[in-house]
Every structure is written in C-alpha cells, then in structure tokens.
Amino acid sequence: MMRTTTPWILWCVFEAILLLLMGISLQLGPTSVTGTDMWNACIAYDSASDSQFAIRQIRLPRAILAAVIGASLATSGAIMQGVTRNDLAGPTIMGLSSGGTFCLLMGLLLLPTIGFHEAIWLSFIGAGLGYLTVYSVAFLARGRITPVRLALAGTVISILLSAFTQGLTIYFSLHDELLYWTVGGIANTSWPQVRTALIPVLPGMIGALLLSPSITLLSIGEEVAGGLGQRTRLIRACTTFCVLLLTGGAVAVAGPVGFVGVMTPHVARYLVGYDYRKIIPLTALLGAILTVAADIASRTMIDGQEVPLGLFTSMVGATFFIALARRRSSHRGGKR
C-alpha cells in the first residue's frame, strides 16, 4: 500500500510547491501586484491595468517557460540515464547545448539580420546535430557503444564545439549577440517563445511517458529487455528522438541551462525507485520546480541585477556533484 500511495502523495506535494513558486515569481518585478491582480490577469484580463499587463504579458510567460524548460531538460536527462545506464548522462555533456550555440553562431555570421524565431530554430537544429555527432563518434570507435564511451565522446565533442564557438565569437566580436545563449537565461520572455518551446516539448514529453515501461527494462540491461521481447534498437531510436525534441526545444529558447537534467533524475530515483513510469513524471515536476526556484533566486540574489539562470543552475549542480561524489566515496569506504 505504501508503494502505491507514495508517488501520488509526492506528486501532490511537489505540485503545490511548484504552484507556490510560480505565484512568487508573478509577484517579482518593479510593478507591485496583489493576489486579486493575479487572479484577474488569468480569469478577467484588463489590458488597461498596468499590474495585470505586467502579469499576463511579462511575468506569466516567464514563469511558464521556466517550468517548461526545467521539465523538458529533466525528462531528457532521465531518459538518457535510463537508456545508457549512466548516472552522469545529461543534455549538457552530450553535445546538445554546445551544438545549439555553435549553429546559432554560424547563423549570425552568415545571416547577420537573422530574426529571433530563425535563431531559435537554428539553435534547435544545432542541438540535434551535436547529439548525432556524439553518437557517430562513439559508433565509429572500435567495439560496442558503452555508457563510458558515450560520455567521453559527448565531453570531447562539447569541449570542441565550445572552443570553436568561443574562438569565432572573439574573432568576429559577437559577444553581445551570443551572451544570451552562452550563459542561458529567460529574461524578456514573451508568449511566442513559450509557444515555440512547446512545439517540440509536448510531443517529446508524450513520447517519454509512452516509452517509460521500455526505458525501465533497458535500465536493467539490454539483454534482459531483449529477452522480454523488447525491440531495443527501435526503442533507442525513439528515445533518442524524444531527447532531441525535449532538449532541443529548451536549448533553443533559453540556451544551455546546465545540470538540471543530471540532478533531478537522481532525486526522483531516490524517492520512487527505478520504475520509469514513476520516475519520468516526478522528474519533470522536480525539474520545473528547480528552474522556477532558480529563476526566482537569479532575480533576487543581487539587488538591481539579474544573475543568468544557467549560471545559477550550474552553481547548484556543482554543489550537488560534490555531495554525490562524497556520498559514493564514503559508501565504497564503508564496504571495504
């Protein structure tokens, strides 16, 4: 009974936390608002009201986009860790973020008058190309693709693309144009950005939920999944496509928001076990909570200034990895 009710209890608790954080996010800004203003902005919108306009057109799309980005990155991280059986797998080390930024840079160099929506799709295409490049490098090496080999290939390709991006940025003096995508952020968010992100994220999320039973079997072992009648190659191809949709959509509108896809699956597995039918929904919710909380912190940490969202999540991620490494080292020491 406890195993049946616990995931639902956790879901309700974390959903309440997410709604609370989004309510706090709607209150942040130079224009003061009340609870009545927030309610009217959602139910009975009056464009003549400054407070309702600030909520409806500026703060609400930013809060929603933060939640969408966190949920998509967290879900893609959970898929990658389950399929590759690598606890360190995540969008930031698989060439997605660096590929999107590099492709955006090439677009700015070749088409200086490129618009925002074209830049978003260029970044999305680059994320997909970066991910495919990592898999190609790992596939061309001798032997089968292993989690360690995939992680090493992803790290090398990410570093290489980042080096090219930084070198070309310095040479052509494109610091201001690339700053937004380099550090990751959601400042000046509008509804078109939210819609652009949802186009790939929604089908990616639905696909992840449908594939969650097969991901559970793959996380146990490819031999086990094949012995139970799973078409492992087809499943890997479908999960790869879902990862591209989820991460590409997030990176395209917000840039490289690091470590969200690596941290949250660990927490979800600790809370609900190793069944990805439970891990994926909970991970998506935890990712949304993390990015909305990080966005709130980025706007309130320094008075009068805003810390980029990607920089703040990287700081939290570094702390998480230190704690994880210490926990593993102490666990191994205890076994000895």
Characterise the protein shown here.
By secondary structure, this protein is an all-alpha fold. The chain has one domain (62-328): ABC transporter involved in vitamin B12 uptake, BtuC (Orthogonal Bundle), CATH 1.10.3470. It contains 13 helices and no strands. It has helices at residues 2-27, 35-43, 50-84, 96-110, 116-140, 147-172, 175-183, 191-220, 222-227, 232-254, 260-272, 276-300, 309-335. Helix 8 packs antiparallel against helix 12 and helix 11 crosses helix 12. The longest helix is centred in the first third of the chain and has 35 residues, at 50-84. The protein is globular. Residues 1-5 have low confidence and may be disordered.
